[in-house]
Amino acid sequence: xxxxxxxxxxxxxxxxxxxxxxxxxxxxxxxxxxxxxxxxxxxxxxxxxxxxxxxxxxxxxxxxxxxxxxxxxxxxxxxxxxxxxxxxxxxxxxxxxxxxxxxxxxxxxxxxxxxxxxxxxxxxxxxxxxxxxxxxxxxxxxxxxxxxxxxxxxxxxxxxxxxxxxxxxxxxxxxxxxxxxxxxxxxxxxxxxxxxxxxxxxxxxxxxxxxxxxxxxxxxxxxxxxxxxxxxxxxxxxxxxxxxxxxxxxxxxxxxxxxxxxxxxxxxxxxxxxxxxxxxxxxxxxxxxxxxxxxxxxxxxxxxxxx
Length: 307
Ligand code: ADP
Hints:
By secondary structure, the protein is α/β, with parallel strands linked by helices. The chain is built from ten helices and 13 strands. Residues 187, 223-226, 228-229, 242, 248, 251, 254-255, 258, 280, 283-284, 287 line the site of adenosine-5'-diphosphate.
């Protein structure tokens, strides 16, 4: 293990409020649903909990409101062993996600209101500069304002930390960001958005990964859902198959589980392919359980699947 081992993650918390019903209501209509669940969510928050449960030494930078959802976030971090550098703001709500789940097909439709986390800015990064500069890993996504992600990646890169960028949700980004990425980790939809063509075949995944390396990323990992992940760096490509850990009940947050596990493995000095296998194992267990953050596996469960 290298001397630096900390993982610093910048991102949002959003309470996942999931409603099951036979369809979405029309405007003006009240519809009776068949189920409801509440749990901690938000990509950065899920990744932080996944990484800590996998054994990483994790600091999470974010903002929440001074309300019950914010308290839920802070207790989830305490339980998972995440150091929460999370600003608690008065007068603004915590992030929350409305998730409609079709009770028959399981398909979903989501609205994310980032609340306090939408106010994350470069000042949050500057307030944590010393911690980012002494970290082994810095990881972020695109749910909080883009300039905060770029500022964090820049500081981490300059300090010699390994940077992991998850360009999610899908949106266009400035080309200047690629050179700040040691690992850029999109899923198929996000990779398609970045390169401007569909990713349905291995050839298309390979072409997309080469494009992102040409734009300046050191390494690219495209996650391919139940198939696994595609790695490309330094002119080499490798496909890493997914694991099967049991019946799949909820794939929400699979990408976050993968990233949390991957970051922990890289922080422990694993080679990239071995870290991708670790991330795939983490996600394979998470998809056998309902929810996002509560579904993240412990280190002993991940090690058992990898043996
Ligand atoms: P996202 O959740 O961002 O859409 P993916 O669906 O690509 O991300 O999943 C991320 C990773 O999770 C995959 O690379 C794979 O290792 C794992 N994974 C996803 N779905 C399954 C599944 N049904 N069975 C096993 N592993 C899965």
